[in-house]
Design brief:
Helix content: 55-70%
Strand content: under 5%
Distance between the termini: 57 Å
Length: about 230
């Protein structure tokens, strides 16, 4: 940049006062270089700003631009959650008995032997959590001879969520925050599948009471469903 233009000259080109130009500098719309007691501006920046004012789009300061960029990234992460749910809704895992036993053992091993996971280790599990359906639970419980075999996946999901939130970089990392959203949505899907599976097996009320849920009126299936979604 060549800082050769003084503030009064820039004000004349932009059609504003010297004070307004100084405000533009404070907002980050223009940069300056101090030489002696004078503030010099870059003529190219001034001309670009003049063209911006003539356009139909508002001019953003650097601070406003970064804020907008962060908002867009957050919206993209929210959309990723929605798109993943839509993509997996009609694609159940469809596991067979042999694979379901292996998957159950692997999940149980992670749950008992691990306390932390890297993001790249969690990602494949999110897809599994997303796609396990009530029919998969039926195969899983039969193959393992454990009517509560689905619980290991729900608990593993919760443990992984705790790991992500407990990361010291979580509050500043959009990647970790997005991973947590994906785990939360996957956990919600797991609970939906567990709810439907329990209803299919005719032991829904027993399951709800056993896992510390407040009993709702028997005629209010929606209330029971809501309580199941809110529980760990």
């Amino acid at each position: 940049m060549k800082y050769t233009m003084k503030i009064p000259e820039a004000a004349s080109i932009l059609g504003v006062t010297d004070r307004t130009v100084r405000n533009y500098i404070k907002k980050g719309l223009l940069s300056r270089q101090r030489i002696s007691r004078s503030s010099l501006l870059d003529p190219i920046e001034v001309e670009e700003l003049r063209l911006d004012f003539q356009s139909e789009f508002p001019t953003l300061s650097r601070k406003e631009f970064l804020k907008l960029k962060t908002t867009v990234r957050r919206l993209e992460s929210h959309m990723e959650v929605v798109l993943r749910m839509l993509d997996t809704k009609m694609q159940p895992l469809g596991i067979g008995e042999e694979y379901s036993r292996e998957l159950y053992q692997l999940a149980a091993q992670h749950l008992t032997e691990r306390s932390s996971w890297r993001a790249e280790e969690i990602a494949p599990w999110i897809e599994i959590f997303d796609r396990l359906s009530e029919n998969d639970f039926m195969v899983l419980c039969k193959a393992t001879d454990n009517p509560k075999a689905w619980l290991v996946f729900l608990r593993l999901n919760v443990r992984m969520s705790e790991c992500v939130v407990g990361d010291r970089e979580y509050s500043t990392s959009l990647e970790l925050q997005n991973l947590h959203k994906l785990l939360s949505e996957a956990r919600r899907r797991l609970r939906i599948s567990a709810f439907i599976y329990s209803e299919m097996m005719g032991n829904l009320e027993e399951e709800l009471n056993r896992y510390g849920l407040i009993e709702a009126p028997k005629s209010t299936a929606e209330s029971l469903f809501s309580k199941l979604l809110k529980t760990k």
